[in-house]
Each structure stands twice: as structure tokens, then as C-alpha cells.
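Q: NlpC/P60 family protein, please. Structure only.
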Amino acid sequence: MMDRRLTPANGRVAAAHLQGQVEAQNFTEGSAAAVRVAVADLLKAPGGARDRQLGYGAAVTVFERHEGWAFVQAQADGFVGYVAEEALGQATAPTHRVATRATHAYAEANLKTPDRVFLTLGARLCVTGAQGSFLETEAGFVPAGHLLPLDRPDVDPVAVSERLLGTPYLWGGNSAMGIDCSGLVQAGLHACGIACPGDSDLQARALGETLASGTQPKRGDLFFWKGHVAWVADEHTLLHANAFHMAVAYEPIAGALARIEGQGEGPVTRHARLTGV
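A: Structure for NlpC/P60 family protein:
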């Protein structure tokens, strides 16, 4: 059975490559677009529950626009869902990404001018010029020190995730305004140029090499539970977005394992190690 989160088909329309595999009234190659708001919710159904979020500049393929909603597939991880049509704009060729927890795009190259849009970690922009300590983008002027070229990935995904310490927990969140466990892992890996699915169950199937029970954890490892994932910050400490702290927080590994199992959420289902991390 196809995973609806990764299958661009809704009965009315489907991606052309699915012809013969799913039923739909129309099949299409779709059209390119990009998110043009700070953060757009990616919903399971129009007006429905949030599955994930897409930050400014996120590239999507639009398969349908219907009654104010766009049925899309995110380029970064293949996640499918609905976003408000007004959140989308013209696709561009991004050159840089936000490498800090967050920043703003200003109307002019002056921090005292109005801010046009909030930009969260990982947001993508096309830099067209420089003025003083600012870079000019389609969103406005952004402090140069907050951006990095796309061809300069980070090297430590845990360090990237640590930039989001204290961020409020938000189910399905993918931004500095709110994030969940899988969003935190994805943010770290995407900043390092490493492909990563959107949800923890998909990550558990796709990421790293499974280690034997009892293996000494090291920084960059991942612990998975049913419905949860956490970074190993060091041999004694986890870093994760979790509902217990309602934030991105450090937690002693031993205490976290006992707490999570004690809450009835079960033991660790997988200890994984990423190659090259």
C-alpha cells in the first residue's frame, strides 16, 4: 500500500508518474512554486490537521489548486499535502540558506527599517546583491552573517539542532517558532546536505546503520521509539524536541529512557548511527 504522505494523488488529480498505479480524474506533471511566507502548514486535508511545515523558499510541485488550497509535494523530502494557495509564489533558484536560528528580511539595508518577513533556520533565498552588511534577496535585505551559500553545508547536524534549544514543542512543527522531534532531526540533517524524511517512522526506516542493543552511544547517533526520535548529544545526553519539556531540550539518556518507558511509550526501538557524521 502506498504511503499517502509520499503519494501525490487525491482522487481528483495525481502525479503523471503514478498513471496506472492509482485512480484519478486527471494526471499531471504539476508546476513549480515556492513558499513565500515565513512558515506554511502542510495539511493532511484542506483545512485539516497539520502534518508538517514548509519554511520560506521551500520548493514544491503543485498538482492542483482548488478552492483556495494547493495540493503539493515538497521537493526536499517528498512529503505531500495541502497548503493555503496564498502562501505560494513564483519558484526561483535559491542561492543561500538561513544558517542561524532565525532572522528577518528588511525593507532596506538598515535594521531600523520595517521587517518584511521572519525567516527561520533553513529558509532558502536567492541573493542578488550586497549592500553594507546586508545581502539583497527577493524577500528583502538580510544580515549577511545569517546566510550561507547552499554549496557550504554544515558538518555537524547536532550542532545545527542545538541552535534551536528552547524552541517550543509543536506537533508537526518545522521552524524556530515551533518544532517537533522529527522536525529537529530533519533540520540538522538538511543543513548538512543529508537527505532526511519528514516523520520519525520514515526516518527510522531510512537513516543510518542499526546498532546492537547496549552499544555505547556517541554524538550524532539517533534513538528511536514508536513515534519519537532523539539526537545523542554526547554519551550521556540526548537532545530532542519533546512534549515532556514542551521544548527542544537536553535530557540525561538514562533518565529519558526510564521516563519514556514509564509513560507507557515503550523502550527504544532502534539505535542508529549515521555514516560520516
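A: Brief note, in case it's useful. The domain at 96-149 is CATH 2.30.30 (SH3 type barrels.).
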